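Re: beginner question about structure tokens

> Can someone show what the tokenized structure looks like for a real chain? I only ever see the sequence side.

Sure, here's an example I had lying around. Input first:
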Amino acid sequence: LLCTAWLGVNIFANLPEPPPWDFGAYYFYGTAAKLGVDFYQPLQSVPLPFSTAPNQDFVNEIVKVGFPYPPPSMFLFWPLSYLPYAQAYLLWSVLNLIALFLAIAVLNRSIFKSETAQTPLLLPVIVALLWPPVATSFSYAQSNSLILLFLALAYSFRRSPISGVWIGLGAIVKPWVVLMLLYHMTAKRWGAIIAA
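And the corresponding structure tokens:
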């Protein structure tokens, strides 16, 4: 509970000026889609959501480059642009926190199959929240918790074609997730590969 509260305090501390990396980039891309701009081109015509000018790295890596993700992933970012920047950041952070808890619960249930053998969820939650990469991911408002949830669900359904659906959804956000299909290829689970 203390770890979650600490993470919540950090999220709320960023509300007056949410981080430009990575959430600001997601919101910026979503704004480009909302305005009907070709988001795979340089985006100098799209208004920036920040109250102060971003640093030159943001301009060089985001504004002058365009959208670096597969087209379907825009469906994650585009809706955010309909909310004010700070509210969109809060919604995104809460959704990622929920995704993290769900991923831990799914993995806990998948690894410890028997109801009586399940470890208390409190321990893995505390470990996850105290692990520095998780804190860093939340401080930048990245999409890693969402990817973890997709991977956890793919693992949970690993003997079913549904696993491929979760891998496919993860690959929409981060294309490297498609490498998880190698497991299904070696196991000759063609249904999961087709489903992805």
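Each token stands for a local structural state, so reading them left to right follows the chain. Residues 85-111 form the longest helix (27 residues).
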